[in-house]
Amino acid sequence: MADLDEHSPVFAIAVAAELAEMHPQTLRQYDRLGLVVPGRTRGGSRRYSMRDITQLREIARLGSEGVSLEGIRRVLELENENSLLRARVRDLERALADQLISRPGARVFAATATGAAVSLRAGARPQRNNAVVLYRPQR
Q1: Gene3D superfamilies from the entry (predicted)?
Q2: pLDDT in tens, 82-114
Q3: What is the 3-state secondary structure (H, E, C) of the chain?
């Protein structure tokens, strides 16, 4: 059996509605509006993941606070974008750390006017006065 995670579509609409404490028709409406789009079986039946259930509960919470469906859609869109950007930052931080580890002598960096990072020799100064210098002390 394949590994299941929070994104695995496993719950039929009746179970998902019960877990989200909503009516199944509400889930169908949210699917039509694109707020929560469940996976589909070959026969076209909806299958919800735990991530979908969490999102349905968030929609219910926002709705109870008076946020419109359009507002909820926008909040969810921004939250998803935020998650993607945070993941990208983590990837870039890992790549930078890997590069620093593979080049143990390069400990001082400067940012160029275009935003590129360039390494400097220890004790060297950046060519431009407005460059930002990042320093990583030796352990």
Answers
A1: 1.10.1660.10
A2: 999 999 999 999 988 887 777 665 456 677 767
A3: CCCCCCCCCCECHHHHHHHHCCCHHHHHHHHHHCCCCCEECCCCCEEECHHHHHHHHHHHHHHHCCCCHHHHHHHHHHHHHHHHHHHHHHHHHHHHHHHHHHCCCCCEEEECCCCCEEEECCCCCCCCCCCEEEECCCC
Token pair of 114 as six digits: 């275009």
Phi-psi region of 108 (alpha: psi -120 to 50; beta: other; left: phi over 0): beta
Separation of alpha carbons 8 and 50, rounded Å: 7
- Give me the half-sphere count of Cα atoms (radius 13 Å) on the Cβ side of residue 55: 22
